[in-house]
Amino acid sequence: MTFRSGFACLVGRPNAGKSTLTNALVGQKVAITSGRPQTTRHTIRGIVHRPDAQLVLVDTPGLHRPRTLLGERLNALVKDTLTEVDVVGFCLPSDQKVGPGDRFIAEQLSELGRDGRGTPVVAIATKADLVGKARLAEHLLAVSALGEWADIIPVSAESGYQVAELEKVLIGHLDEGPALYPEGELTDEPENVMVAELVREAALEGVRDELPHSLAVVVDEIVPRPQADGAQGPAMLDVRVHLFVERDSQKAIIIGRAGSRLREVGTEARRGIEALLGTRVFLDLHVKVAKDWQRDPKQLGRMGF
């Protein structure tokens, strides 16, 4: 039996459904999702295991015209990733018309094809469950007119519509080769990055549009709590995390009245962190103001960008 392996990169404008699609393909949550645009800050690798193939998914920040130094660095991260993969999945949400952001990305992907590498690009009409057949057909025609794609396929990560078919299409563009990761491994992201993403996802739920761009989360430490002599079972982990925002008004949003909002964030994030780490967690959250950190090279460096 022929075995294929390689990397697929999902790109698209912010909030195009890339993270949700990554999770659907992997079959488990490896990338944070949010109704707010620009929630992905790191490339998250999700690993799809099949008897005949291993597909490593790279979920990137949304490509966009940058307005800040952070935006420029995120775009550079995406473009660097595009040069290292075997196939690109270009996500275009079916419930929104093709717009300037999609055309901007299509131009970037056309340049990729002109540079001699010839990386195949699969156009993916995401969120197909949110529209009727007529609207979906109209969207697919608009996507087709954007460029020359190796394949065009509508999917719905929420309902599962054609997710398995997309998996087959992406794997079809991989070369023959051995498995790149051990069986059962679903992501190669460090634990502290995954923990930070879970906290940021919880903090972004139900807040104003301004906050996603201004929120950064840094895990200070994950350490076992000392146990009493003779104690049985795994030690509780102390997880200390800082949430950075740019203004005092944003700090007030995160904390909420008498700390109520921050407690909700902690409760929600702790569930995901305990599932990730497989043990009980004491989550210690602190909110700090780092003025205009998105435009400050030193602060960006300290936050890992």
UniProtKB/TrEMBL annotation:
GO CC aspect terms: cytosol; plasma membrane
Region G2: start-end pairs: 38-42
Chain residue ranges for the region called G3: 59-62
PROSITE patterns: G_ERA, KH_TYPE_2
Residue intervals of the KH type-2 domain: 207-291
Keyword terms, alphabetized: Cell membrane, Cytoplasm, GTP-binding, Membrane, Nucleotide-binding, Ribosome biogenesis, RNA-binding, rRNA-binding
Transmembrane segments: none
Domain Era-type G: 4-176
Chain positions covered by the region annotation G5: 155-157
GO terms classed as biological process: ribosomal small subunit assembly
HAMAP family the record matches: GTPase_Era
Role noted for this protein: An essential GTPase that binds both GDP and GTP, with rapid nucleotide exchange. Plays a role in 16S rRNA processing and 30S ribosomal subunit biogenesis and possibly also in cell cycle regulation and energy metabolism.
Family named by the database record: Belongs to the TRAFAC class TrmE-Era-EngA-EngB-Septin-like GTPase superfamily. Era GTPase family.
Protein name: GTPase Era
Protein encoded by which gene: era
